[in-house]
Amino acid sequence: MLAKPRQPGEMRSRSLVGRLAAVVLCGVLAGLVLAAAAFPGNLFLGLTVKATSDAWGGLPQELRAPATAQRTAVYARDGRTLITNFYDVDRRDVPLTEIAPVMRQAIVAAEDRRFYSHGGVDLRGVARALVTNAKEGTTQGASTLTMQYVRNVLKSDPERTAEERQSATEVSVGRKLQEIRYAAALEQTLDKDEILARYLNIAYFGSGAYGIAAASERYFSVTPAELTLAQAALLAGLVQSPNEYSPIDGDRDAALVRRSYVLDSMVVTGAITTAQADRARAEDLTLDPTEQPNGCTAIPGSHADWGFFCDYLRSWWLAQPAFGGTVAEREQALRRGGYTVVTSLDPTVQASALRQSLAVFDSDEPRALPIAAVEPGTGRVLAMAVNRNYSLAANPAGQDNRPNTVNQLVAGGGAIDGYQAGSTFKLFTMLAALESGLPLDTEYYAPTRLPTRYPAEGSTAVCGDRWCPANADPASMNGYRTMWDAFGRSVNTYFVRLSEQVGPAKVVEMAQRLGITFRSDLDENLARTDAADWGAFTLGVSATTPLDLAAAYATVAAEGTYCAPLPVLSVAGPDGTKLPAGDPSCRRVLDADVARAATDAARCPVGQDPAYGRCTGGTAAAADRIVDGRPLAGKSGTSDQDATKSFVAYTPQVAVAGIAANPDDPTDRVGIAAQSGVVEAVARVIVTATEGRPEADFTPPSRDLALGDEPERRAPPTRSGDDENDLDLREWFDRLRTPR
């Protein structure tokens, strides 16, 4: 490296130890110069490397294949819209072909004019440095670009200990000799352009920017290929003293003086003419600083709602063994691995979901409407929105989680177990029944109340000592019902009876098979130890999330193929290689005909007619009007005491779920206020997600699974009008164990 001209504030006091070390180091370098006088330069370097080790094999692994920390960039579904980055160090490697030629010329002129003619150690530079040191009392070590690269790798390698990294920059004879040996070995194996590219990608340019790509963005908001001569000269001048020269954090005037020096040096090397240097020198220093966001809470305020999706992406990443054997290793891979992640987030669908959530509840309201949209057949998550800002910003007094929160209100986890989704869970009972061979035309008489065999512990629905659920609207729900109209009208006593028929344990297992996760300790314990007596499960008393619910219904939309929710389209390593971790994880969990039959019944709640025309009404019929007749299926749900209101609907192309609840107060009767709003919100998100796409219809189920043998109906005994206490009626229910 050339001896730099003195700059303002450059001379500093040095300790006695530093002066002694400099004297010793200069002595060693003097010895090298004397040796060089006796041997031609290349022969001398060859003997030096030969005497120490095999050139390439003697290099440590970090120099042969450097594991430099790079930021992971996260994009939306289009692959261009940046969501955020994750990094410990703001660095992004780029090939030399993507770096402007003037930048390559500027760094050589600034740091190592003889770069293309020496073999890793510039002996002329050593001699020149010795003369300067003797005259001016400096401690220049004549480091070439190759030697600087060696030092940068060794001091930043995450695999080395802190002591090893520190030793890479100590002032010692041993360290300098090692640096020379490694530089000479690299020059024997790598061509100059490869070394230059590696240097430009690892050098620190100040203001938190490591590598030329980060520096170009940080100072000028351009790519390295777009750098002008004046910009390149300024950046090249920063590496000698990045903290001092940075025009953002340091001395703007010093940066301009240093830029002028680089331009003059480029004239000396023949890279540019004097006229070009003068024109660049005359340019004003026009900065356009861009600081790369880092993490989910750093997403720009205009898209603060994207943080919930980002948070889910990070949780997904930390659970993937492909990125490391432990959570800590996966975290390090995310923050240092230099991945390019194209997510499944569709900004248009996300904006619609947020807009619809805010149409039901304002961001300042205690009540929330989290919404999730999932793609059937892949599990890819298109949107995760809620009427909150994903932010660590302070909230007004008395508003602990609004309008700002980082609690995962959409996907659950941490402090969020989820919300009761009410009658949407009747789908799992219907699937278990269909899988056991019961057709859609299976008839039961649905009374106002149904005495069951389950104990009434913890329930207000009691007949003596037994659990005794009731229909919400006896006038429209009581009577003979099939799966079609019982699902459409949401008849509680029918589905509790159907659950008794197949066994609640099978219903619970069906829900788990379709991805319902029990996050609360109570739910997990009931599912594991007491599922056979969990009769209320069919009415949606277990906590769930919009994301789980959307993925479960997407399984039916995909005719029985469950795909784990996936927040990415692709994940590529630093070299651009696509990794299989980004591929969907799907498996068949239902027979296709069973899924088709369930969809046929699920046309009833949304006001559409199924293939066999057996619907007699629906609790969410407004959805058909909103989607303008596009084939649709789904189910609404209201939990006990109207604490929540849920709606999940799907086409063959998308499944969307929303659950209105008060995350901080489960006794709040949210369902009353959100009755129609949740249905409309979910339906309008579906309209956005399918806009411009051709209509896709559902495949009808087989006749056997739809109609069975169509037996004659049998009437129940005469009722006294007091269904829950009528012993004759109860005995009749007990006898009627075989459905028709």
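That was protein one. Protein two is written in the same sequence-then-structure order:
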Amino acid sequence: MPNPSAKNHLQGETSPYLLQHADNPVDWYPWGEEALARARREDKPIVLSIGYSACHWCHVMAHESFESPEIAAVMNKHFINIKVDREERPDLDQIYQLAQQMLTGRPGGWPLTMFLEPDNQIPFFGGTYFPPEGRHGLPSFKDLLERIAEYFHAHREEIQSQNSRLLAAFEDLDTRTSAVEADRLGPAPLKAAQQQLVQSFDPRYGGFKGAPKFPNPSSIERCLRDARGEHLPEEARQKAFDLARLTLEQMARGGIYDHLGGGFCRYAVDSQWRIPHFEKMLYDNGQLLALYADAYELWGSERCRQALEETGHWAMGEMQSPEGGYYSSLDADSEGQEGKFYIWTREQVRSCLEEDEYRLVARYFGLDQPANFEGHWHLYGATTPEALAQELNLSPQILEEKLATAKQKLFAAREERIRPGRDDKILTAWNGLMIKGMAAAGQALAEPAFIASAERALDFVRGHLWQNGRLLVSYKDGRAQHPGYLDDYAFLLDALLELLQARWREGDLAFAVELAEAALAHFEDPAQGGFYFTADDHETLIHRPVPLMDNATPAGNGVLAWSLQRLGHLLGEMRYLKAAERTLKASWASIQHTPHAHCSLLKALEEWLYPPQVIILRGPEETMGSWQAIATGEYAPRRVSLAIPTGARDLLGQLGEYRPQGEGVAAYVCSGHTCSPPLTRQAAFEAHLADQGR
């Protein structure tokens, strides 16, 4: 039996989450053949515990149960114990979250606690958080462990029968269809999704009804695109616009947004966006940067500009490693308490400010109202700057200056506190989301520092996580590991296409093609269409999913299908367009069943139905800036534009046909299947885009 005073088998890992458990008396293993072979050899069931570094309830269960010698003794005696970081192994997390829902009929979450049969890792019981003592209808974890160990050895036939049913249920999850005719792809799901989103919309506070309330970036992006959608009448376009605008403005005003340091928390626990669950995730902020960049181009509010600027600087200052890659998350907890870093007493705020500054801040951030978080105040926009300026008889400019000064003082005071933990592993997929967000923000704000930050992250990923023509998932402490998943390829390809529109750089388009080719070679199901989450040479698990629905991050199938279409139109590469079409056909039944749950695939469908407007600018780099500003300076979701300098080499596909014309700039504009002659006068180019619309 393992010595409970010794370190367990996690000590050689790099994941901060796994290392948090390396000193537990539980004899934890990472997922791998050593643990699985021991389970088979000793015929012991597996306790599979999945969580992540920034997860509050993961910390609670670790402290209550996994640090308990008494509970650890039961786990070590009866089970083989495996700990998984869901951010490094999303394949395992997806499978066992689904299994938990099938077995219990309840939604999953973290920490996830599953009990697996040793021979084939099929789960026979599961749940999420279990307390050390029975409460709130939950059994004590120690009692549960003892009962499950006894049941496992006494009821093997029942477990095997349940396992067979569970595997059959996994097979039924694949809703793809292989024989859909091309002419059946149409705009009906786009219209249905818009109606569904409007019906579930909270007309008072934005977002979608109920609490907790999540940002849902894929759904809000769908609304932004619907505001320009050819498939909708004017009234529906206006509803989509109103939904997106109210949501994004309320989020930036609410407590889900960090008004002092920038960046968004993961979700709000209330319906008014006031009190967050305090962890900050890279994947949320990358998506929200791209969304707010679109919003700023569409309606140009000061609130959107501020959220973009502050979140971009937060990403560079707190989340970007010296080597260039972006870190994964900031914890919800500091000093063992959720939100302690972010919350205030009135006395703490007053001590940082002059009296007139305090009166202004108290009114703006709700300190003149009752405490809103465990006897403290979490800052949120209790009023608008416009209303407050009028109330205090100040000009909007003076008010903004006073607020900015006060916020700087509070930020400096907060910086003296003990900071939340940071998960400093660098994930390829999440870096793809943030690279796209920073590139979009940099372009919308004309902020070259943001674009340069995105370039540094891309160079890091290419230098450390792209090996032998394949992506790896995670990097930390000099080690890159785990073979890449669909999301790694899809999100990074999408990011490259966004970054190329912000600026042209030699080699980036060739890298995009390499990613596309690797995804097609190792993830596509060419017979039925669509892309598996794991590669063809990945370890064999109990299920190989084809993810079609969006979750906290967009579905890899939707992002990759959209990106392949963009790349196909740019290069004239029909293989990419056909692969995207196969994905849409295979997904058609699932899309039709719940359109609003497939917003990423709807984006690809929209592009298939209404091909993008492609703009290629050629000319001297120093004179193309004003032309590029015309192409990218408005919200035009169906437009893709590249500004390629005269001296660019090795242009791929049909890009080589777009040649410079003389010493000036030439613009080539293709809409649908029609291309303009080269436009060499800026006024003519601007007029042509105005005639073509968005």
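The CA atoms of residues 267 and 484 lie 27 Å apart. Keep this in mind for the problem set.
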